[in-house]
Amino acid sequence: MPNILVHLIVNLALIGLIARFDPLFKQDKKGIVLAVFASHLIDIDHLLADPIYDPARCSITTHPLHRWFMFPVYAGLALFRNRRVRYLGVALLLHVGLDALWCL
User: Fold this and answer.
1) Which partner from 6, 12, 21, 53 sits 20 to 30 angstroms from 100, CA to CA?
2) What is the distance between the alpha carbons of residues 85 and 95, in angstroms, rounded to a whole number?
3) Alpha-carbon distance 97 to 11, whole Å?
4) Per 3-state DSSP, what percentage of the chain is helix, strand, and coil (rounded to 5)?
């Protein structure tokens, strides 16, 4: 299985586990699932790179929405009171965190 598929499966599984054990998830499944899938939209910044996908390239150092200075923005979203925004922030942090692990 190519690295990108493994990466996406691990990302979705980890977020799914968090959602599964969060008692608030039962109250807003649709909104939280949408927030989690929306977190993958940050990968649109891969379109700015040439080539668009390179398995040997580290996303954290290349793509604008994956850079270190964006992490506090995502952490701020994770602190919001609104559940959907909070899940989006958590999902974004997990996304870039997993991307950082792939760079190792």
Assistant:
1) 21
2) 15
3) 10
4) 80, 0, 20
Q: Rounded distance, CA 99 to CA 29, Å?
A: 25
CA distance 101 to 79: 23
Nearest to 101 by CA among 51, 60, 53: 60
Residue that is written with structure tokens 């270190």 in the block: 68
Burial class (CB in 10 A: 0-12, 13-18, 19+), 88: buried
pLDDT digits (tens, 9 = 90+) for 47-85: 888 887 777 788 888 889 999 999 999 999 999 988 888
Question: How many whole angstroms separate alpha carbon 66 and alpha carbon 63?
Answer: 5
Buried b / exposed e across 69-83, counting CB within 10 Å, b at 16+?
ebbeebeebbeeeeb
Structure tokens at 90: 């958590």
8: which 2 tokens? 């996406």
